[in-house]
Amino acid sequence: MTLEKEFSPAGPSPAALFPIQRLLAENIAKLDDRAARVRAKLGETLRNFQLEAERGDRAQGAIQTLRNRLSECTKEENKFKNARDRAVKVVQEIDTRLQNAEAGLRTAREADASRRTAREAALKSQIPLERELLQREMQTFRHLLRDLTTLRGLLRGGALPRQKAILEELAKKCEIVENELPELQRGLEELKDEENRANAGESRAGLALHALRAAMKDQGEGLKTAVGAEAHLRARFELFEAELDETARGFLLELHLVQNAAREEGEGLRRRRRQRDLLRARYADGMARMAKRLQQPLLDSPIPPNDLHPNVNGGKAAEMRNGAFPALDLNTSPPEALHARVLLTRSYEREHLLQRGNYLDQRVLNLEKETEALRRLLELTKGEIKGSGKRRQNPQKNNEKMGELTANSSSRLFSEENPHSTRRSASEMELNDLQDGLNACGKMLRVEIERHEVLLESMKEQHGSLRARGKELKKTLASVEIEKKKTHTTPASRR
Question: What pTM, to 2 d.p., does this model score?
Answer without folding.
Answer: 0.27
